[in-house]
Amino acid sequence: MKKNKTVNGILKILAAVGITAAVIFAVVLFQLKDSKFSGEMTVEKASQIVNDTLSDLPETVSAVAKFVEENTVVTVNDITYGHEKNVILDCTYETIDIGKTIEENAQKYINNVYAFYRENSDSGKKTNATKIKLFVAGEVQEDVKNAQTVSGDVKLEIFEIEKGKYQLYLGDDVVNTVFGGILDAQKTISSKDTAEYNGEEVNIQKLNTIKTGIKDCFTLKNYSKERPDTSIPILKLWNTLKYDFTRNFITEKRYMYLVTGLLTTLEITACAVLLGIIIGFIVAIIRCTFQKTGKLKILDKICQVYLSVMRGTPVMVQLLIMYFVILLPMGVEKFPAAVLCFGLNSGAYVAEIVRGGIMSIDDGQTEAGRSLGFTYMQTMWYIVIPQAFKAVLPSLANEFIALLKESSVAFYIGVADLTLGGIKIRSITYSNFMPLIAIALIYLVIVLGLSKCVSILERRLRKGDNR
User: pTM of this prediction?
Assistant: First the structure.
C-alpha cells in the first residue's frame, strides 16, 4: 500500500512538472513572434533619432557641453539589422576636441578656482559648486571655442524596446567618442589633487567642491550604460531578476551584509533563549510554590508585576526603553541590551508555559516524593520538573521560534542583525524587492526548519508516552 502511494505521488509530481513545462514552452513560442525588429528603419529616421538623443544629453545649465553638442555632427551612412531587435548604424562624426583642451588647461582652471575659493573663504563668504561654475564657465567656454576639431568613424546602435519605440544605445565609449572626449575631460579634472596659490602647492583632495564646480561646466544628463534588453517578455523578466540579484547581492559581496546579520540574529536568539529559560523556570517555580504552599508571597507579587509588564507591552517599546532609557546612560552596548530585552520578554512567556506544565502534574507525584523523604525543592527538581519539562517542551520550542522572529526589531537600536543587513543593501541599491524578500525568505527557511524539528520532537515524545 505504501509503495503504491509513493508511486502515485511521484507520478503526480511528474505530471505537474510536465504541464508547467508545456505552458512555459507555449508562452515562449507565442512571444517569439514579436522577437524581430518590426517595420523598417531608414537613414533619415535613424539620423533623427541620433540627433534628438544627442541634443538632449547636455545639462541645460552646462553651457560648454551644450556648445560641444551644437558643434557636433553625426552622419548616418549605412544601416544593417542586428539579431537583438536592433539596427547598427555606420556613422561618421565631427566634433570639438574638448578632452585635449581640458587636459591642456586643467591646472590653470584649478589654480584660478582655488584662488577664488580662498578669497571668498577669507572674507567669510560661502563658496559652493554653482558659484565656482559661474566663475570659471566663461574661461572654459572660451578655450573650448578655440579648440581643434576631431573626426572619425563610429558605430551606433538603435534598439526597438517596444513595438514602434526606439532607443539609441549610449555607452561611455560612444558618448566620449562622439563628444570629443568629454568624459576624459571630467576624469582629468577629477585627477587633479593640487593647486598653486601664492607660489605654493596646496593639497585640494578634500575640496571636492572645486572639482565639481569645474566639471559642472560640461556635464551630461544621466544616460543608461546598460544595453537595452529586447528579449521576449519572459526572458526579459528573467534577465531583470538576474540583474537585480547580481546588483543587490553579488556586486561588492553585498550578500555579506545578510550573512553577518544572520549570525548576529542567531547569536541574539541563542543568548536570549538561555536567559529566558533561566528566568522562566525561576519565575514559574516561585509562582507554583506560592500556589501550592502559600509561601514566597512577596516574590510571587513581584513575578506577577513582571509578567504583566512583559506580556502587556510591545517588545519593540520594551527594546527602546531598555536601551535608550535604562542601559545607554550606563554605557551598555547595543548587543547585550538586545539580549537582555528579548531574554526578559521571552522569560515571561516561558514562565507561564512552565507554570502550566508544573500545575498539570498530579499532586500525587509531589506527595509520593515527600513520602520518600524528599524536601519540597528536591521533589520539584527530581520528580515534578522533569515530567513538566517533557510536557511543555514543544510549546517552549514554539516560543523560541517566535523569539527568533521578534528579534528582527533589534535594528531599531542599531544592532547589525539580519533585518538591518537587508536595509543596508536597500539603501545602497535603492531596490526594495530583492533585499526585503531575501530577509523574509531567510527567516522563513529557518523557521520552517525549526518547526520541522519541533514536529519530529513532538512525535518522539508521543512515542515515548505510548511505551
Answer: 0.63
